[in-house]
Write a structure and sequence with these properties.
Blueprint: E1 3-11, H1 15-26, E2 31-34, H2 43-46, H3 67-72, H4 82-95, E3 102-103, E4 108-114, E5 119-124, E6 129-137, E7 159-162, E8 177-181, H5 185-194, E9 200-205, E10 212-213, H6 222-229, H7 231-237, H8 254-257, H9 260-272, H10 277-280, H11 290-308, H12 311-317, E11 331-332, H13 335-338, E12 344-348, E13 354-357, E14 361-364, E15 367-370, E16 373-376, H14 385-388, E17 392-393, H15 400-406, E18 422-424, H16 438-458, E19 463-466, H17 468-483, H18 513-525, E20 531-534
Parallel strand pairs: 1-2, 1-6, 2-3, 4-17, 6-18, 7-16, 8-9, 8-16, 9-12, 10-11
Antiparallel strand pairs: 4-5, 5-6, 13-14, 14-15, 19-20
Helix pairs in contact: 1-16, 16-18
The chain binds NADP nicotinamide-adenine-dinucleotide phosphate.
NADP nicotinamide-adenine-dinucleotide phosphate binds near residues 149, 182, 183 and 184.
């Protein structure tokens, strides 16, 4: 196969990849984009499981670079479903004629930096090769599905489907005996959606969640018009907030300045918002102060208790082993009511783990649960998995996969020392790994990466990478902020705790989206101080 030469290769055609492609192309660069999927959309292509839906308000979950696009697109509701978000991304790609530069069904399996030539040699599974001065990874932080360790799947005669690899044509669940493993944000969406349709539903739960009741509403009419009138405000303000949403953390000392009653009232209003405001819109201390976290956790438990209204089930469905918000807070719509249905059974696999598959289903504690379909909502090798799978080797053949198998480090989540001209949008140690309304952070990162590339081009440099000292400085700042929070003590994907052997570190920077943006802007304004630029 012939080798193609491009200035920039963008890997991934989701929210970040489409915008990155657009930015570089508009600047006159020769840029090509590849994606392993059979269609564009990234997360919103792969995760087409039943019930998949946004949990950021749609009016904050969009591109801000084109007023025309903002004018032309209409969201139907506050938290739209997966097909609508995919339609939005296709609408964008059509409008800006991006399809010609996107090559689908193309999985990258190797990338080696050639130091003397000053480019990346990138290989696809099919054997295609690109020489690219810049390699921009837009593969997403939740893209490498985690398969559970229980053995014997080859024996099982039924269907197994991971939610992030859900067949595009769907899976017939009607009247079937279905099992769902996993009760994170994904599992909750699946369970509440399919319960009424399936014959029997066994939910295999290891960790219960503090799920907040979603307040979804139509954006047709006045509410939609209101949010459309706010485009300019949202565009300017979202990147300066703590979480990239339309609300921000109040600057009050919760413990000292408010009475218990006032705190309770504030929690009530955040809960009533029916959004992630309850998680990243109350008080910063909720994530740092154990006593206050306990107060909020108890508030959330009371809310769930009122919904479940069954002591035996309450014990299983209400979390007690970790604090509110230290595990990603899911939104739900009818989830708790599902468990009072006759066809639904909650199997607690915390103390008695799932042992193995049998021919007919799953074995737990010696008992066989018969299944026609097993849904795996078991999550991802987050932050790093989609990058390490690409087999990237930097200067002197150093492997990113090996490096990160020992210690997960980066500089602002955007670059790694020893990997010149590799940019990692949504890479580990930036807010975009978990603590951000994704499009807010992805657009900020794409803008930063584009500016860095333009800076090199306009000033006659061929490559850029952070110095070891700059990287050490970032990692130590990241750890300092992370260690002030309660999140480092919870066993969640946030810390890599869901993947055996993965080094522990909070994957996402938690100093706030606005502060992170300022730090990135300072680096650019300084002419990329701390970064090595080669002529
Ligand atoms: P997740 O939060 O990692 O949840 C995985 C679930 O699978 C957990 O309940 C986990 O239990 C369980 N699990 C894994 N291995 C297991 C095993 N061997 N036995 C039993 N249970 C097992 O993954 P997710 O639900 O896919 O969510 C990942 C992230 O995607 C979310 O945190 C969120 O950021 C994002 N998301 C967003 C939306 C949205 O609305 N926009 C929807 C879905 C997901 P343990 O907790 O005990 O490990």
């Amino acid at each position: 196969m012939t080798t193609k030469t491009v200035e920039a290769l963008v890997v991934g055609a989701g929210i970040a990849g489409l915008y990155q492609l657009y930015k570089l192309r508009e600047a006159g660069m020769q840029v090509h984009c590849v994606d392993a999927g059979s269609d564009i959309g990234g997360t919103w292509h792969w995760n087409c499981y039943p019930g998949a839906r946004l949990d950021s308000p749609s009016y904050t979950y969009q591109y801000w670079f084109s007023d025309e696009l903002l004018d032309q697109w209409r969201w139907s509701e506050r938290f739209p479903t997966q097909p609508e978000i995919k339609r939005y991304l296709k609408f964008t790609a059509d409008k800006f004629a991006l399809h010609d530069q996107i090559q689908l069904n193309t999985r990258i399996v190797g990338a080696d930096w050639d130091d003397s030539a000053g480019y990346w040699v990138v290989r696809s599974e099919a054997g295609e090769v690109w020489h690219a001065q810049y390699l921009v990874s837009c593969v997403g932080m939740l893209s490498a599905p985690k398969l559970p360790p229980f053995p014997g799947h080859e024996k099982f005669k039924g269907t197994i489907a991971h939610t992030a690899r859900w067949p595009q044509g769907g899976v017939d669940l009607k009247g079937k005996k279905v099992g769902v493993v996993g009760t994170g944000a994904t599992g909750i969406q699946v369970i509440q959606t399919i319960a009424a349709e399936v014959g029997e539903l066994n939910v295999f739960q290891r960790t219960a969640q503090y799920a907040v009741k979603m307040d979804n509403y139509s954006l047709e009419g006045e509410r939609g018009e209101y949010w459309r009138s706010q485009h300019e405000n949202l565009k300017n303000n979202l990147p300066n907030t703590f979480g990239g949403f339309e609300w921000t953390l109040p600057e009050v000392d919760w413990a000292r300045s408010l009475t218990v009653h006032e705190r309770h009232e504030l929690l009530e209003s955040c809960w009533a918002d029916g959004s992630l405001k309850m998680w990243v819109g109350t008080y910063p201390e909720v994530l740092t102060d154990a006593a206050l976290n306990q107060e909020v956790s108890e508030f959330a438990r009371e809310k769930i208790r009122a919904r479940v209204n069954n002591p035996a089930l309450e014990e299983k469905l209400i979390p007690t082993s970790y604090g509110f918000g230290t595990y990603r807070v899911p939104l739900e719509n009818g989830y708790y009511e599902v468990f009072s249905r006759d066809n639904v059974n909650l199997v607690d696999v915390a103390e008695t783990p799932i042992e193995a598959f049998s021919e007919n289903g799953l074995i737990v504690g010696g008992k066989e649960y018969e299944l026609d379909v097993l849904v795996l909502a078991t999550g991802f090798d987050a932050g790093t998995g989609s990058l390490t799978q690409m087999n990237i080797r930097g200067r002197d053949g150093v492997s990113l996969t090996e490096l990160w198998s020992k210690d997960i480090t980066s500089t602002m989540g955007l670059q790694v020392h020893g990997f010149p001209n590799l940019f990692t949008i949504a890479g580990p140690l930036a807010p975009a790994t978990a603590f951000c309304n994704m499009p807010t952070c992805l657009q900020q990162q794409v803008d930063w990466v584009s500016d860095a590339i333009f800076h090199l081009r306009d000033n006659g440099f061929k490559s850029i990478e952070p110095s070891q000292a700059k990287q050490d400085e970032w990692v130590s700042h990241h750890d300092e902020v992370a260690n002030m929070t309660l999140l480092v003590h919870t066993n969640a994907w946030y810390n890599g705790a869901n993947i055996e052997g993965k080094p522990r570190r909070l994957l996402s920077y938690i100093g706030g989206v606005g502060s992170y943006r300022d730090l990135c802007a300072q680096v650019a304004a300084s002419g990329y101080q701390g970064f090595i630029k080669a002529a």
